[in-house]
Structures are given as C-alpha cells and as structure tokens.
Amino acid sequence: MKRSLSLSFLALGAALLALGAAAPSDTAKTGGGEGRHVLAVRLDGVVSPIMDDVLRSALDRAERRGAAALMLEIDTPGGLESSMRTMIQRILASPVPVIAWVSPSGAHAASAGVFIVMSCDIAAMAPGTNIGASTPISMSGPMDSTLARKATNDAAAFARTIAAQRHRNVRWAERAVREAISASETEAVADSVVNFIAATESEVLAKADGMTWRRGDLVRTLHLKGLPVTRMEPDFRQRLLGHIADPNVAYILMMLGFYGLIFELQNPGAILPGVVGGICLLLAFFALSTLPVNVAGVALVVLGLAFLIAEVKIVSHGMLAIGGTISLALGSLMLFRSGTVQVSLPVVVTGTAVTVAFFLWVIGSGVRALGRSVQTGIKGMVGRHGVVVERIDGTGVVRLVDEIWKATADEPIEIGAEIEVVEMRGLQVTVKRIHREG
After folding, report:
1. Which end of the chain has fewer CB atoms < 10 Å from its terminal CB, N or C?
2. 198 shares a domain with 279
3. How many other CB atoms are found less than 10 A from the CB of residue 404?
4. Which domain holds residue 130?
C-alpha cells in the first residue's frame, strides 16, 4: 500500500511538472497581424485561478503587442471571490482598455461575473443574455448570520466602488448583491449596468468607437471601428486545467479516485489502482478547490460509499446498500452550493448506478463464493477422486490430481481402481472404492 501511494504521488508530481513546463501558446487566429488591432479572448466557465491566468496572459500579450483594446467574451456562473478580486485588480490597472462582452446568445454573467463585467472600461451584452445575482456564498459550509452579513456588506461595498468608478448604476450593483436581482440585456442597458447591446464583434467595436476610458488622471478616446480582431486561445495547460475544473469532470474524477483506492485496499500490492486512484483523487481535490463546494454534499457522497463498502462486510439484508444509494445520490445532487454550478443529472444518475452495480456485483460474488464447496484444507480433500498406484491392503498409495498420498481402506483395492477420499488424518487419507455400474 505504501509503495502504491508513493508511486501515486510521484506520478502526480511528474504530471504537474509537465503541465508547468508547457510553454504558453503565443499563437492566434489573426485577422490583421501586428499593428493596430483588438485582441479577443474567451472567458467561460467558473471564475477560478485558471481564468485569472488566462486573463493575465491576455493582458500581457495585449500590452506587448500594442493592441488598441482587449475584448473579453464572458460566459460565467461565477466562482471564487479571491480570483475575481485578482482579475479586477488586473483590469483596473491595465494600460490597455478592456471591453467586456457577455456572449454568445444564451450566455450570462452571474455572481463574480457581474463584478468583472462592471469593472471593464466598456461593457456590452449580446442579445439573449443576462447579468446579475451576486450574493456571496461560502464554499466551506453555511455561514452564521453575523458572518453572512459581513460578507454581504463587504461585497455590496465592493460593487458600489466598481460601479461608481465606471459610472454605472450604483444602486443596481448593490441590489444585485443584497437581493440577488438579475437583468436581461435590454434591462441592463436601460438601468445603466452595461453600455450597449451588440450581436457581433464588429458591432461591439463600432459602438465602442469614440467612447472614452480612464486610467488615473488620463482620459482617452477609443478608435476601434474597422480594426481587425486577433483571437488568443488559452495554452494547453490552461485548457487542460480548465477541463479538470468542470463540475462534471471533478465529480467523475472524485468517483474514480474512490474506486481506485477501494480496489487497492481490497487487493494490496495491485499498485495500478492505487496510482490511478491517487492521481484522480488529487486532481478532483484541485478541481473542487476552485468550485463552490457544499461540504454536506461531499460528506453524503463519502458516507454513501462507506455504507456500500460496509454492505460487503456486514450482513444487513440490503439496508446498508439502500442507505448508501440514497446518500450517494443526494450528495451528488448537493455537491455544489451554487444553482448555476451543478453536476448534470445524467452524470449523477450514471455515477450512482455504476457505483451501486459495482458493489452489488462484489456482494453477489461474495455470496456465490460462500455457496461453493470448500476447495482447500482438510475439508477440501474429502470427496476428491483419485486412482490407486500401489495396492491397498491395509495401507497403500493413491494419486489425487497430481499428488501422491498414503492411503488406508477397509478393504483391499487393486492398482488402477478409482477411489474417493472419505477422511483425512494428518498426511494420510482414508479412501473407498468407487463402484461403476455396468
């Protein structure tokens, strides 16, 4: 077991070193090459250290290449407050103007995404999008009334500050935090939450053209109409970690990690299940650290697996299996605290069904094993058939499978006769002749 866990950590370390060594991609699908252009990057999924890393790379590249502006195409359900604040600090300090565009149709900027959109110099939304619901939640479990009030007041003050700095609707920003209100694209423009509605990149640039942006005491005018758009894609490391941080992938990795460790505990020295399980479990922990996890959901998943394992060891007439199934299903549905960040129902149903089927198969195998006759030891010898190789007259010698045994019998038995073991005493067996009819 120790050896397999050590191999797990070594394999994980090698994987992380490989990811860290992957050079950031500096290629893009270019519409105009170097010179005056607008750099665009997509920020979708959960606000996390991974998204912050993508933003940092984009801002660095926009400054290095002399881009006229950086366009952030946003679609996010929210995420970590720490990552959100770091991203906003980068945007507010950027020497390049930043345009937020909630797109495509059907996208949204919720929770932490609201703060990011409002912090940008220009904010736009595509038709059929929405923004809002910024009430803070705790990733470590329910907050008491005092802590919840402090977190809400802090978030409300931050929202007011950003909205005032970007000349947006301060009252709406505060209500988005305190009352979790949301707005469609038309309502957001009417309430001065965003600047305008735009269906395409070129429309965003055309409508932003001539608008002003500020850094400190400097006020400048945007000249973006007709500029080519250069699209930056996240590098391999960012894409891989982004996929790992997906709620469905995190859930699957967690289940695979538990399976691997259970296999290793049941079969010490197998090594491979321990290695795979250890890596999957640590990757799941990384993913869960970037998501709004509900501790109660994790506890129910672990409790459900514990019940199913106990069902293999304890005769409960199926009660532990039923309890484990219910606990596992409820824990999977409650795994995340945000309504917009959830494990999809098909993944939950499939994961629960596979887990229950696996443990029922293990239980069934155990029951069948108990029903089989004993194949080893003294009891396993009784009933075996063999052949006499040295005449038995009081004592003799018989062959049982590929083994030679001293034997006794109540009657003389000739060489070549078939016998059956009726008793075993020490290293000597008592046999009887098998009489064949006909």
Report:
1. C
2. no
3. 12
4. 27-235
Q: Using 50, 70 and 90 to split pLDDT, how confident is the model at 364?
A: low
16 lies in a domain?
no
Looking at the structure, tell me whether residues 340 and 411 fall in a common domain.
no
Same domain? 261 vs 209: no
Q: How far apart are CA 332 and CA 324, in angstroms?
A: 12
Provide the pLDDT for residue 411: 87
CB 75 within 8 Å of CB 100: no
- Token digits of residue 52: 């912050």
Q: Is the peptide bond before 77 cis (omega within 30 degrees of 0)?
A: no
Do 67 and 97 fall into the same domain?
A: yes
Asked whether the beta carbons of 49 and 237 are under 8 A apart, the reply is: no
Per this entry, what is the length of the chain?
Answer: 438
Same domain, 228 and 242: no
Q: How far is CA 208 from the centre of its chain?
A: 39
Angle of CA points 252, 255, 257, to nearest 5°: 105
CB 281 within 8 A of CB 258: yes
288: Cβ–Cβ under 8 A, 6 or more apart, which residues?
250, 254, 298
Is residue 401 within 8 A of residue 386, CB to CB? The reply is yes
pTM exceeds 0.70, yes or no = no
Within a domain: 17 = no
**How far is residue 80 CA from its own chain's centroid?**
16
Cα-Cα-Cα-Cα torsion 417, 421, 427, 428, nearest 10 degrees, comes to: -60
Cα–Cα separations (whole angstroms), residue 95 to 1, 362, 372: 54, 62, 77
Partners of 213 in the β-ladder: 220
Question: From the DSSP assignment, how many helices (H) and strands (E) are in the chain?
Answer: 15, 17
DSSP string over 358-418 = HHHHHHHHHHHHHHSPP-SHHHHHTT-EEEEEEEEESEEEEEETTEEEEEE-SS-B-TT-E
d(CA 325, CA 321): 6
Contacting residues for 85 by C-beta, under 8 A, at least 6 apart: 158
